[in-house]
Amino acid sequence: xxxxxxxxxxxxxxxxxxxxxxxxxxxxxxxxxxxxxxxxxxxxxxxxxxxxxxxxxxxxxxxxxxxxxxxxxxxxxxxxxxxxxxxxxxxxxxxxxxxxxxxxxxxxxxxxxxxxxxxxxxxxxxxxxxxxxxxxxxxxxxxxxxxxxxxxxxxxxxxxxxxxxxxxxxxxxxxxxxxxxxxxxxxxxxxxxxxxxxxxxxxxxxxxxxxxxxxxxxxxxxxxxxxxxxxxxxxxxxxxxxxxxxxxxxxxxxxxxxxxxxxxxxxxxxxxxxxxxxxxxxxxxxxxxxxxxxxxxxxxxxxx
Length: 304
Description:
Transposase_HTH_dom, 10% strand, 12 helices, alpha/beta, 6-stranded mixed beta sheet, Transposase family protein, HARBI1_dom
């Protein structure tokens, strides 16, 4: 068994010790409430012994949280984490599943607004309109395992751009590259515009008139449908255009790219966590994993 105080080092967990302490204070009670709810369902009724009676947990909540963070950061197998914490692999598997769900449900931190968290795309647009924030939106893909042969929908995960089996996440960031929101992941074959529309961005543009979102060339359909709100770079001129107009158009595209690049920095922060470099586990667990990691990244960047 490894020294558990060493395992809380930021090199293992990916977050500072102060951030870890705040997570323990925030998530300990929801974990206990959820645990009691699961036990109530398993028993089929109220408990017969007083709270605190019975066998003790082999992993206290702090150790469960640390094990989950190490798993997200370095993608260590559950069996290896079991050796580090001196428990069985199944105990780690259960702990990671419980804590990962809690991390995914936290939402995203708001800069300079401690205690306020964004959980839906409507929350992000409401915050942007109230604070005058110009949003940046982009999509990223995570490589996943190929579905088993013979199952329906096998081609849905084949990305036309990556030429791999992927799942796609739509991410919103602000002008400083701070993550504000990410959606439930979609199959990689889905177009970026379709993924954004499926997430409900159209009604948000209609309801929040003052919000502007910077996009890349992959979202020309959105910029056509929501002029003045969804801002894509100017189209390139055709060959043979007059040189001064070409130079002006290139400067405009460069300025747009320079303002939009911060969302790429946010995506790079997410991909520093090893599990998002390439996902090798069950695909239905990737959405919770991505939201959990993005929420942790947003906690750090919101205080910068």
